[in-house]
């Protein structure tokens, strides 16, 4: 007879192949339950209320053969498992028989427990590989950042020796050739873990043959890691710290700069540390390549700085000569260029009866403009020997610049003022000026009046048929003429960011400074422009002040 519960579902042996327990459907047939447990992909170990092993499924029997039914789990031969069972822990993780196992406990009631144990060897290996790869990536990123921060050759070499320690090795030695041809011996920089700072020294050429792989690395060829040579030659002992001992493994990698080897990186590990594996070799070679590229960049930068300094010395404003009846002062600022070279310039040359002055502004900024500046100044120094009249000299300069190789392709030009200073019969100065598209110079009279000297003209070096203009002005004793480049009036700043300084402010500054000697006037104008800019970027600035000497 079958009874029917309140919900109408039939109940009884004929219709009840399973029983309900804690919301789980468990077979009542022991054989079916065993088949289900053995079909799982994780190990299952259950214990009774006394802590004895009640059931071990097929996966558990394979992973944990030491755990058998009827034995106390807390005394089994799997130490981590037994410790977790004794201490009532909810989980454990341990290495067992070359596999990594992770177990989790589940309470079954009445003091009984089920342990679910998984083989996480591959999962752990993938996670470890990911952590290792992230660590290597972080190391290369940090090393690249550190190497790129310095453009000084010696600092780059020291960084290349210190960065691999201790991540890649216990000792790093960078062997490199100095940039100077006069020094034909290799140099080395050494750093070991615990050293306060890198050590340096000279290496005889015999060192390259004493350490296997070093000669090949200095030629740009990669070598495989190997043991430290034995017996130890004297040359190698010199590059080891006194208390380092004999290295157990050494790896030599070439440091390649663009187009050539820059040096070699020697990494050594003490005994007890694992040898260099394949991934270590790959990482060391990648680091050495980055260090070589940084070293090559530092050497190239050093060469450029040297060339720029040579150029700078030829382009910096000259020391002004003494001119009878006149007082002169010049001022110069380059457009944010640390090498202090640019496209604005001034020059003063002594000539018969007085002086010849030039003030110009080459189109562009930086080294490119500085090269043309040098060409203009050198041309003026040569041409003034055959022509000293400002207008005729400017016409000769225009032809000389247009005749220069590739002048048409460069499309560069210069705005220019050329003038002569001659003492007047009754004191003062006569100034004859030729203009080549440059801002008009300003005259500051004795009463503070400021007026331009209109010269106009077309830029020099732009057109073969360019026309230039000339003017003449007389300076009474104490009066002054200021020639300047547009970096003064076009300086942008002020309270309204981007507003130009302008000619009106320049005239007002000159009027208020009437009577000042040229040096003080130029210093004041440069100070006013700097205040106006307030640290913002600027164009090149050049100015030349000429004052007629006051009468005795």
Keywords:
single chain, 552 residues, alpha+beta, Beta-Lactamase, Phosphatase 2c, domain 1, 3 domains, five-stranded antiparallel sheet, 15 helices, 24 strands, 33% helix, 27% strand, elongated, disordered N terminus
* CATH architecture name of the largest domain: 4-Layer Sandwich
Considering the protein shown, what is the CATH homologous superfamily of the largest domain?
Answer: PPM-type phosphatase domain
Strand line-up of the largest beta sheet: 4-3-7-6-5
Helix content: 25-40%
Query: Helical stretch count?
Result: 15
State the shape: elongated
CATH fold title of the largest domain: Phosphatase 2c, domain 1
Provide the structure class: alpha+beta
Total number of beta strands: 24
Strand content: 25-35%
Just give the CATH class of the largest domain: Alpha Beta
Question: What's the N-to-C terminus distance?
Answer: 145 Å
Tell me the domain tally.
Answer: 3
Contiguous runs where pLDDT drops below 50 for at least 5 residues? 1-25
Evaluate the radius of gyration.
43 Å
Described by strand count, sense and barrel closure, the largest sheet is: 5 strands, antiparallel
Mean pLDDT: 85
What does this structure look like?
This is Serine phosphatase RsbU, regulator of sigma subunit. It holds the Pfam family GAF. Residues 1-26 are annotated as: Disordered. Residues 327-548 form the PPM-type phosphatase domain. InterPro entries: Bact_Sigma-Reg, GAF, GAF-like_dom_sf, PPM-type-like_dom_sf, PPM-type_phosphatase-like_dom. The chain is an alpha+beta fold and 552 residues long. It has three domains: 30-119, PAS domain (Beta-Lactamase, 2-Layer Sandwich); 128-307, 2-Layer Sandwich (Beta-Lactamase), CATH 3.30.450; 317-548, Phosphatase 2c, domain 1 (4-Layer Sandwich). It has helices spanning 30-38, 58-63, 79-87, 121-149, 153-162, 206-210, 214-218, 234-238, 278-315, 366-383, 390-403, 407-410, 486-489, 502-512, 518-533; strands at 18-21, 24-27, 43-47, 53-56, 91-96, 99-109, 112-119, 171-176, 187-192, 199-202, 249-257, 260-269, 326-333, 344-351, 354-362, 414-423, 429-436, 442-444, 450-452, 469-475, 480-484, 492-493, 499-500, 541-548. A five-stranded antiparallel sheet has the order 4-3-7-6-5, with helices on both faces. Strands 10-9-8-12-11 form a five-stranded antiparallel sheet. The longest helix has 38 residues, at 278-315. The radius of gyration is 43 Å and the shape is elongated. 34% of the residues are buried.
């Amino acid at each position: 007879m079958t009874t029917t519960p309140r919900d109408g579902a039939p109940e009884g042996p004929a219709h009840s192949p399973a029983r309900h327990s804690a919301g789980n459907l468990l077979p009542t047939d022991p054989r079916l339950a065993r088949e289900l447990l053995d079909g799982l992909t994780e190990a299952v170990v259950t214990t009774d209320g006394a802590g004895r092993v009640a059931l071990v499924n097929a996966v558990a029997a394979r992973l944990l053969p030491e755990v058998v039914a009827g034995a106390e789990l807390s005394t089994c031969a799997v130490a981590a498992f037994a410790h977790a069972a004794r201490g009532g822990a909810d989980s454990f993780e341990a290495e067992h028989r070359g596999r990594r196992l992770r177990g989790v406990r589940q309470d079954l009631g009445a003091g009984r427990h089920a342990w679910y144990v998984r083989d996480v060897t591959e999962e752990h290996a993938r996670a470890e590989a990911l952590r290792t790869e992230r660590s290597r990536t972080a190391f290369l990123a940090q090393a690249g950042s550190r190497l790129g921060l310095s453009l000084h050759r010696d600092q780059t070499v020291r960084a290349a020796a210190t960065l691999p320690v201790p991540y890649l090795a216990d000792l790093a030695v960078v062997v490199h050739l100095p940039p100077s041809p006069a020094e034909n011996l290799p140099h080395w920089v050494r750093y070991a873990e615990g050293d306060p700072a890198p050590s340096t020294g000279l290496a005889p050429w015999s060192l390259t043959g004493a350490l296997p792989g070093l000669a090949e690395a200095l030629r740009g060829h990669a070598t495989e890691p190997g043991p430290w040579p034995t017996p130890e030659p004297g040359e190698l002992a010199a590059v080891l710290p006194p208390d380092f001992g004999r290295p157990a493994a050494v790896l030599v990698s070439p440091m390649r700069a663009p187009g050539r080897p820059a040096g070699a990186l020697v990494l050594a590990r003490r005994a007890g540390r694992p040898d260099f594996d394949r991934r270590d070799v790959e990482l060391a070679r990648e680091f050495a390549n980055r260090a070589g590229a940084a070293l090559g960049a530092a050497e190239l930068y050093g060469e450029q700085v040297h060339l720029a300094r040579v150029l700078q010395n030829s382009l910096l404003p000259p020391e002004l000569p003494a001119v009878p009846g006149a007082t002169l002062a010049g001022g110069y600022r380059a457009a944010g260029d640390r090498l202090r070279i640019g496209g604005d310039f001034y020059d003063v040359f002594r000539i018969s009866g007085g002086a010849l002055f030039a003030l110009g502004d080459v189109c562009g900024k930086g080294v490119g403009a500085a090269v043309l500046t040098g060409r203009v100044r050198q041309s003026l120094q040569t041409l003034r020997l055959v022509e000293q009249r400002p207008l005729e000299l400017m016409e000769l300069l225009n032809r000389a610049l247009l005749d220069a190789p590739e002048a048409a392709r460069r499309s560069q030009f210069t705005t220019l003022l050329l003038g002569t200073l001659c003492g007047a019969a009754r004191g003062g100065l006569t100034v004859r000026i030729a203009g080549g598209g440059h801002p008009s110079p300003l005259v500051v009279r004795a009463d503070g009046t400021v007026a331009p000297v209109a010269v106009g003209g077309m830029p020099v070096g732009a057109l073969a048929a360019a026309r230039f203009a000339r003017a003449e002005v007389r300076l009474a004793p104490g009066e002054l003429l200021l020639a300047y480049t547009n970096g003064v009036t076009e300086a942008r700043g002020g309270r309204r960011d981007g507003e130009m300084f302008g000619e009106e402010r320049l005239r007002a500054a000159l009027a208020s400074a009437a009577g000042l000697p040229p040096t003080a006037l130029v210093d004041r104008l440069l100070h006013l422009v700097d205040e106006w800019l307030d640290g913002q970027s600027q164009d090149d600035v050049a100015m030349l002040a000429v004052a007629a000497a006051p009468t005795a």
